[in-house]
Amino acid sequence: MPGVCRGFTLIEILVTISIIALLTMIGVTNFRVANQKARDGRRQGDLEQIKAALEL
Question: What pLDDT sits at residue 25?
């Protein structure tokens, strides 16, 4: 059919980019929280080892 243009509209592209950006932000935030919890757990273990060493 001549005159029929196929493709994505600007709104569709902007919505897609917005959704991807939102999901990326959520993923980065969750990664940071998990990283902080792991670091805190490691620190707690280190403190327990120091405490045990000082009690000897």
Answer: 97
Torsion of CA 20, 23, 24, 27, to 10 degrees: -160
13-40: burial string, b at 16+ Cβ within 10 Å, e else: eeeeeeeeeeeeeeeeeeeeeeeeeeee
- Count how many domains the chain has: 1
Residue numbers in the chain where pLDDT is lower than 50:
none
Question: DSSP code of 20?
Answer: H
Assigned domain for 4 exists:
no
Phi-psi map region of 2: left, alpha, beta (phi>0 left; psi -120 to 50 alpha): beta
Tell me, what's the pLDDT at 13?
97
Residue 44 domain boundaries: 22-55
